[in-house]
């Protein structure tokens, strides 16, 4: 229907690099990977190489195929180069509504007719982002989960003006990436997963704040009692405390219910720069940004 051949991924951070990798590795697209500074793009490319090396080590990919994946990803810091000629643009920029609205206005200048503009936002309104462009019918949410290379789900979110064709393209792209999808029929804050997850993560920080249990025991309780792959505080470190705080603030502002209010501890840790795995420290000490386990 669309035959996406070239995709642009805007943002080479925690999510963007993984989305670019899946686009090139699984869907076989040519991918432009954009960030605002060369050092961010370089870091994204080195995270992609580290991830590909893991697939090679476990025999899921040959070294030659890993090299082909890298050759399909074209790093750039120029928005026009990234967006023009792409049938699909996936935006994975910082979770700041003002910054995203500004970016969408700029993307709109270069977007090819018929191209689909998907946002990986975890909580910002797709309708708001669509309204920053002249083609709100082509704007859709495609919310990936961290790490995109391994997590099997994409939430597809329909904005108020998103067309059926755009939703169909998003489904087609997800299928090419070998991901399962769920459809959020309404553009509601936090969509499905974060509406449930973020209050749970916040509640875990309240338990720490109240001295009810140590982080290790809270995580052990939920990992073993609910069979989560990792407990909520380790997951918070993994997702990023700043990202979680941003989502909490959007939920709180949009849904106007005190149950979404971020805890004082979460705010304080973000102020201190303890953002989790990406900053080396959160509720745990982490070695590198690519490690999935905290240091013992
Ligand atoms: N690329 C490629 N392979 C990777 C990888 C990566 N980035 N990260 C890990 N792997 C591989 C490892 O090599 C390992 O392979 P093996 O089993 O063949 O040895 C395997 O994955 C497992 O890795 P680890 O043993 O290092 O770590 P875990 O067993 O803990 O698994 C995990 C990693 C799959 C990430 C698991 O910890 C997990 O499921 N965690 C929960 C993740 C989660 O809940 N994500 C959602 C967060 S919410 C979100 O993203 C929404 C946002 O909007 C906030």
Descriptive notes:
The protein has 296 residues and is of the alpha/beta class. It has two domains: 6-184, Rossmann fold, CATH 3.40.50.720; 195-271, N-(1-d-carboxylethyl)-l-norvaline Dehydrogenase, domain 2 (Orthogonal Bundle), CATH 1.10.1040.50. It is built from twelve helices and eight strands. It has helices at 16-25, 38-57, 63-72, 79-83, 97-110, 126-131, 164-176, 193-209, 215-225, 232-239, 241-255, 264-271, and strands at 6-10, 30-34, 73-76, 88-91, 116-119, 139-143, 153-158, 180-184. It has an eight-stranded mixed β-sheet. β1, α1 (16-25) and β2 form a beta-alpha-beta unit.
Give the strand order of the largest sheet, numbering strands 1, 2, ... along the chain. 3-2-1-4-5-6-7-8
Number of helices: 12
CATH architecture of the largest domain: 3-Layer(aba) Sandwich
- Give the bound compounds: 3-hydroxybutanoyl-coenzyme A
Q: What's the CATH first level of the largest domain?
A: Alpha Beta
CATH homologous superfamily label of the largest domain: NAD(P)-binding Rossmann-like Domain
Q: How far apart, in Å, are the first and last alpha carbons?
A: 50 Å
How many structural domains does the protein architecture include?
2
Instruction: Please trace the helix and strand order, writing H or E for each element.
Output: EHEHHEHEHEHEEHEHHHHH
The total beta strand count reads 8
Poorly predicted runs = none
What percent strand? 5-15%
User: Percent of residues in helical segments?
Assistant: 40-55%
């Amino acid at each position: 229907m669309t035959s996406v051949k070239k995709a642009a991924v805007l943002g080479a951070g925690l999510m963007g690099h993984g989305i670019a990798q899946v686009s090139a590795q699984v869907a076989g697209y040519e991918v432009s990977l954009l960030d605002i500074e060369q050092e961010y793009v370089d870091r994204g490319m080195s995270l992609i190489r580290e991830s590909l090396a893991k697939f090679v080590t476990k025999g899921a990919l040959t070294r030659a195929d890993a090299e082909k994946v890298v050759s399909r990803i074209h790093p750039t810091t120029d928005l026009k180069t990234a967006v023009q000629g792409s049938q699909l643009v996936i935006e994975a920029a910082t979770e700041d509504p003002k910054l995203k609205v500004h970016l969408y206005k700029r993307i709109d200048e270069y977007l090819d007719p018929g191209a689909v503009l998907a946002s990986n936002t975890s909580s910002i309104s797709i309708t708001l982002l669509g309204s920053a462009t002249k083609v709100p019918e082509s704007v859709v949410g495609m919310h990936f989960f961290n790490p995109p290379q391994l997590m099997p789900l994409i939430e597809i979110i329909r904005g108020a003006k998103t067309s059926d064709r755009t939703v169909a393209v998003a489904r087609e792209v997800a299928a090419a990436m070998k991901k399962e999808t769920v459809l959020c029929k309404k553009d509601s804050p936090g969509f499905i997963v974060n509406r449930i997850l973020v209050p749970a993560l916040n509640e875990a920080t309240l338990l720490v704040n109240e001295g009810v249990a140590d982080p290790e025991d809270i995580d052990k309780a939920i990992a073993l009692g609910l069979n989560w792959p990792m407990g909520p505080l380790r997951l918070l470190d993994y997702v990023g405390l700043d990202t979680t705080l941003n989502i909490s603030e959007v939920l709180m502002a949009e849904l106007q219910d005190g149950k979404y209010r971020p805890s004082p501890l979460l705010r304080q840790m973000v102020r201190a720069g303890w953002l989790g795995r990406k900053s080396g420290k959160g509720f745990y000490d982490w070695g590198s940004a690519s490690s999935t386990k905290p240091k013992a």
